[in-house]
Amino acid sequence: MNGSAIALLTVSIVLVWGGLGVSIAILARRPENDHMPEGGEDTRIPD
Amino acid sequence: MAEHPTEAAPPPPTHEKREHWSGQTAFILAAIGSAVGLGNIWRFPGQAYEHGGGAFMIPYLVALLTAGIPILFLEHAIGHRFRGSPPLAMKRVHRHAEGVGWLHVAICFVIGLYYTAILAWALSYFFFSFSLAYKDDPAGFFTSDYLQLGEAGTFSTSFVPKVIIPLVAMWAVTIVILALGLHKGVERLNIVGIPVLVATFLVIVVRALFLDGAADGLDALFTPDFAALKDPQVWIAAYGQIFFSLSLAYGIMITYASYRRRRSNLTAPGLVVAFGNSSFELLAGIGVFATLGFLAHREGVGVGELDGIAGPFLSFVTFPATIAEMPGGAFFGALFFASLVLAGLTSLVSVLQVVSAALQDKLGLKPRTAAVLVGGTSAVLSIVGFGTTTGLYLLDTVDNWSNQLGIVAGAITMIAAAVWLGRRGHELERHLAAVSTLRPGRAWLWLVSAVALLLIYMFVDKAVTLAIDGYGGYPTWYLVVFGWGTVVFLALVAFLMPFLKWRRDISRFHPWPSREQLNLPADVGERHTEDYDPRGRS
Fold first, then answer.
1. CA angle, A36 then B449 then B437, to 5°
2. For residues B146 and B19, what is the distance between their CA atoms, to the nearest angstrom?
3. Phi, psi of B213, rounded to the nearest 5 degrees
4. How far apart are CA B295 and CA B242, in angstroms?
5. Radius of gyration of chain B measured on its C-alpha atoms
6. How far apart are CA A29 and CA A32, in angstroms?
7. CB-based contacts of B237: which residues, under 8 Å, 6+ apart?
């Protein structure tokens, strides 16, 4: 592979897969908002 | 303002019953399953190759951040706040916007008809791979032996049993999954299917990277042509790819978000879905071009000289030609086509779930009844249209018009109804902020409107091109009937379905959080001046 192709491949992988990793990390660290307004309880339908 | 209801009433103690995902992970996997489909495998690599190679990744990433993620958030917000299939959610957005939702439903109905046909081909090729039946002449095998292609620009009633049998099988599987309901059907399919799909594709990509000529293929895909960035068509292609790839404006994300519990985080899972889809797309691009590099190496030509590096011919002609040359080709051929079936099935189910959910909401049907009604009707139409010797041409035409015009129109009308005419932009932005861990901010609304302007340009440009130049060399009458006819069908559904009476009471709905909780005036049309702090400090 030529140098510019390797550079673009690397940058793409870092940004796209890195973006996925960071998104998952953000979600794992704080899965839900602890400051939601009151209410909003759901009624579950039995399977 | 008479167009909007006043929403001063506090949330009622109980809300209407609605099916729910079992949890956040189930929703994320289902949304990724919907987004990751055939387009990731055969559209992205071809688009990147044709539009600047590695340089395409720059507009692609810009499009992901400025259009893909903002529109994904918009659909999540609409579905989650107004809790319904697209027609119901859009009717709650604005009383005259139900037709926008039906436009989404009609698009999904049409896509389901031909998408299943492609899955049927992939299922057949899964079995063909064990004997490498396509080995001697992949192109002739696909068009003559398998599809038994008739004359282009005609409509045949000669059915092809080799296509119809797997087509019936795919419809049966799809109907069963839909009939099992959201939790036991759609959710379980994705919880099992997506990890299996990723693992299978990883095996294929790793194998492809060790083939002779793989580096040449990656060179072809990633060598940047920065001059291409000056071409507006390259940017339009990038925005189009993000748009089609993320399953935006089909109503799928509205429907899937409506099944989330009210007290659910929306934005961070949305980011996982968006980057997850692009991650798979990039993985597919690497695998496909490494494999194409191998084929070019065997044939002693450059990758750019190969025919069929995008679309169905990539999967059903070029890839089989490569597989036939590979050591262990039968095994990897079966893996590849199993991946296609799995990626396509999770997307197909999401598309039909939109139609099923809309009929459940409008007609008060149970999931099982709606699944059989939608699946049965679609199966018959699908077999009549795409199980014949001219099915490929019909598929090509209907796909082009429904994708290039229908979906873009679906997006424009959704944004216009929700943000411009419905004036729900701030409400949706505050809804996202109230329930999510990441606030979208006001820039989000500006981006959504800017995307709509770009989409209007894309729509007009495409419509004019199709009207003047035609498409695919097909005769004019054929394009009028099956191309423009598809658009007319979509418009008729959008116009007529709102006249049908709702079979259940939808008037007692109150969004949560209430407008009061979001620090907004009760009247939707009234200007608001107060800021909103989701932590409760206003």
1. 20
2. 41
3. 90, -5
4. 28
5. 23
6. 9
7. B47, B50, B51, B56, B59
Partner residue facing B20 (CB), from A12, A32, A42: A42
In degrees, rounded to 5, the angle at the alpha carbon of residue B104 between the alpha carbons of residues B189 and B347 is: 20
Instruction: Give the pLDDT band of residue B16 (cuts 50, 70, 90).
Output: low
Can you read off the two tokens belonging to residue B90?
């859009």
Chain-chain contact of A47 with B184 (C-beta, under 8 angstroms) = yes
Question: Would you tell me how many other CB atoms lie within 10 Å of the CB of residue B2?
Answer: 6
Distance from CA of B487 to the nearest CA of A (A): 35
Tokens representing B308 are 């069929």
Question: What does the pLDDT look like over B309-352, one tens digit per residue?
Answer: 777 888 899 889 888 888 888 999 999 999 999 999 999 999 99
* Mutation for testing the A interface, residue in B49, B279, B538 having most A CBs under 10 Å: B279
Per the listing, tokens 């994320």 go with B28
The pLDDT tens digits of the residues spanning B133-172 come to: 999 999 999 999 999 999 999 999 999 999 999 999 999 9
Q: Cβ B54–A12 below 8 Å, yes or no? A: yes
Tell whether pTM > 0.95: no
Nearest CA among B360, B439, B359, B349 for reference residue B112:
B349
Domain boundaries, chain A: 1-30
Distances (CA, A) of B451 to B313, B416, B444, B506: 32, 11, 11, 32
DSSP state of A2: -
Range of lowest pLDDT (B26-30, B52-56, B137-141, B193-197): B52-56
CB B290 within 8 A of CB B22: no
- All structural domains of chain B, each given as residue ranges with its CATH number in brackets, are 24-529 (1.10.4160)
Q: Which residue of B has its CA nearest to A8?
A: B54
CA–chain centroid gap for B512, Å, is 28
Q: What are phi and psi of B150, to 5 degrees?
A: -90, -160
What are the pLDDT digits (tens) for B219-277?
988 888 889 889 988 888 888 889 888 989 889 999 999 999 999 999 999 999 999 99
- What one-character-per-residue DSSP string does B137-177 give? -HHHIIIIIIS----TT-----B-HHHHHHHHHHHHHHHHH
